[in-house]
Amino acid sequence: MTTSQLEPLTDLFNAIEQLKTAGHIEAALARYRVWLAQAANSPTAYAVWFNLGVELASLKRPHDAIAAYRQAIDIKADFVPARFNLGTQLEQLGQHQLALTQWRDILAQQQPVLLADLSLHTLTLNNLGRLLEIEREYPEAEAMLAQSLTLDSNQPKALQHWLHLRQKQCAWPLCAELPGVSPAQMIAAASALSTLALTDDPAQQLAVAQRFVTEKVKPLTEPLAPIGGYGHRKLRIGYLSSDFCLHPVALLTVELFELHDREQFTVHGFCWTRDDGSLLRRRIIAAMDQFTQIGNVDDEAAAQCIRAQEIDILIDLQGLTSGARPNILVQRPAPVQISYLGFPGTSGHPALDYLLGDDYLLPESEHVHYSERPLRMPRCFQVSDRQREEAAPLQRATYQLPDEAIVFCCFNNTYKITPDVFAVWMRILQRVPDSVLWLLADNPQVPLNLTREATQYGIDPTRLRFAGRVAPSVYLARYALADLFLDTFPFNAGTTANDALWMGLPVLTYSGRAFASRMAGSLLHAAGLDALISTDLHDYEEKAVSFAHSPEQRLALRQQVAALRQQDLFDMPTRTRELETLYRLALHERLGADALPEITPDVTTSERQFLRVFCAPQHQTDTLPIFQREQWREIQCHLNAASTDILSTINNITDATVDAVYISHALEHLFFHDAARLLAAARRVLKPDGFIVVISADLQAICGLIAANRATEPLYQSTAGAITALDLLFGHQAAIAAGDTGMAQRSGFTRDSLAAALTTAGYGRVGVISRPEHFDLWAFATKRLLAADDFAALSQTVLMA
């Protein structure tokens, strides 16, 4: 067929549009191919091949689209749109270097075309910059974006990436000169993540988050989840993330997923993560009751998938980090949506109800700068993994570290390092001769730039040592080679601080106002290491120098930090129970009491079993009337002079087999850490609708008696004889004198501290009353969170029966 006999392109394209409008996509594709089969030698065939490629790309058929674009280029080699789109399809298939080659060829060969089309020119440069950044070819990526911004300075997104590239390379001054762009414009264009390392002002961080929401997040839709919730007896928790792979968020959360109480919750993972084949990813998938890949569906379909599984509480582990899909949340697929861990700050997202933190992270004075309602953990916001793998101990010589010198280290991401903090680090090196600073170098520009900066401070560049990225087990083992971790500001260490403390390495931090600048401080505060928290750079410097010059201080701190593995900071069962309690509280607060499943037990009729914990055989008859009823069957454990290890007895009881636990004047005979373990163990053995009653001496009332000079006055008669305030405070003196050392008092509680101990142990609802006439406390708590009225009714039934 001659060219003159071919159907005109306008007629062809109009006919195809009509077919597409009618939904006949395959017929439209066939029409393209018929025309092309008849027009083998037509000089305009490149346009038809290009349009066919566009159609195929829209249908997610990248291989076919690539073939069509190549045909167009074969006919017209200078047809830039086909070459550009070819690069895009190659990138989608993961063939990044081939994609880069296509875009580089456009710049090298098609200058006349680019000069005539500014938008195509900048788009090509921006695609190169974006993909080069992904490929970690930072200098060339920065150069491409600088060229693009020189052509058109009004490109906030290109400017955003350019600025973050300079952060990653420690290229200072950060705001290098660009034609037509002021430093203020550069800072204003920063991403939410970049901003965390630029300012400690939570108001500015909120403004940046809200700008992201305005630009990227769709308006809220009608909620997919029912307004009143689902009323599930067993709540369904959903975790939403693109980081269920070898990533810091996954490294922290994997054991949380494993430890969730399966009597109370089912755990769902919703993932658009690359499968990196890691053991960590396999652990995460195994820890989920249901794991759903949503990477191959759009945001609307992903939200519908979450809604279909009737998730009660959706935990967004992503925030405003790379790979975020905030438009899943705008459809509210779950009645309660919580931001946690992935992004250390406010999201500005109108569909996120809560931000999970703690009292240290989220000071009351800064609440106005958070779009979410704060949800506070009792001690520390951060979960962690006690099963993390460690390599065999390493030697300093392996990393060219001097054996006798002080080794300061910081393995935070390099974009967190700022000129101000680096200047302090250099002064520390000046004041601690022969010390070295060991830093992460995840790209070749970091050592070049930082050693050059060090020289400006008169520091021998060889005193800066650099560590590349390695397997997690080796990465952990490296911490043991350093003496002190120097944190960054205003973007603190998060996972890295956790790892350092786990490996016994002290962390020195600087806490500011914003969430990101208080992360390491939260860990240290929870660990009782407030001495390692500074609130200005001068104090930070002085503490580092003092540490380096005091071998005794170093030894004491290392011993204190090394003991943390066995203490509360890394007590993951307790941390999991605390989180679960907060999840229930959030559901109750947002949806009301009706959102909670009906779990109030009938304690008066059916056969039930209770565990009684008491301090000595003579108290065996000391019990509540409710437990003296026929349907209650008793099992016992007590401590005495021979043994104070009542935990060993409870540990032999199967999980969730006891209807109630009654602890009468036994808690105060244990050390505080054992008392906490006893309360947690008691919760473990309780059935889901179980409850606990605790009777303990009232420390506040007793101290009032001593202050009133009534320390030795008999208060009442017990089976052991007259009881004085000193007996209540220190233990019954006559029994101790007779050799019953188990009767010594090792801890004490006030009304508030007993309530806090039960809450920390994970009980859902807690009430404590003081009985001044008896100088004791009565506490009542339920394993699950009950509505307030139900709790009051149940406690009245149990305690007043």
Describe the structure.
Helices cover 43% and strands 14% of the residues. It is α/β, with parallel strands linked by helices and 801 residues long. It has 4 domains: 3-201, Tetratricopeptide repeat domain (Serine Threonine Protein Phosphatase 5, Tetratricopeptide repeat, Alpha Horseshoe); 216-377, Rossmann fold; 396-566, Rossmann fold (3-Layer(aba) Sandwich); 598-800, Rossmann fold (3-Layer(aba) Sandwich). The strands form 4 sheets. A 7-stranded parallel β-sheet has the order 3-2-1-4-5-6-7, covered by helices on one side. Helix 3 (45-58) packs antiparallel against helix 4 and helix 8 (118-134) packs parallel to helix 10. It is globular, with a radius of gyration of 32 Å.
Radius of gyration, rounded? 32 Å
Count of discrete structural domains: 4
CATH topology of the largest domain: Rossmann fold
In the CATH scheme, the class of the largest domain would be Alpha Beta
Overall form:
globular
Across the major sheet, the strand order is 3-2-1-4-5-6-7
Largest sheet: 7 strands, parallel
CATH architecture of the largest domain: 3-Layer(aba) Sandwich
Terminal CA distance reads 100 Å
- What class would the helix/strand composition place it in? alpha/beta
Number of helices: 31
How many E-type strands?
A: 21
**Proportion of residues in β-strands:** 5-15%
Average pLDDT reading:
89
* Low-confidence residue ranges: 640-644
